[in-house]
Design goal:
The protein is mostly helical and 72 residues long. The chain has one domain. It is 54% helix and 0% strand. The two termini are 33 Å apart. The model has no long low-confidence stretch (mean pLDDT 81).
């Protein structure tokens, strides 16, 4: 997901520079090993390991129950 977000940021930046008259900036695709290198350079960025949610928890996560939880 981090790689996809970085690509989207680059696309938006290029859209602001390039126009219909010409291509002024063009990037090569981000390499697959970019994310591990980024995390090594910036150890303050941490990864969250996700866990599966029990089916019963998903079933009970209604908008009403979430709203009640957030109000308390």
């Amino acid at each position: 997901m981090l790689l996809e977000m970085a690509e989207e940021i680059r696309k938006r930046r290029v859209r602001g520079i390039n126009d219909e008259l010409g291509t002024y900036v063009e990037y090569t695709p981000i390499e697959k090993d970019w994310v591990p290198r980024l995390l090594r350079r910036h150890p303050e960025l941490s990864c969250v390991v996700t866990q599966k949610i029990d089916a019963s928890r998903v079933k009970e996560a209604t908008p009403e129950a979430i709203s009640k939880f957030l109000k308390s």
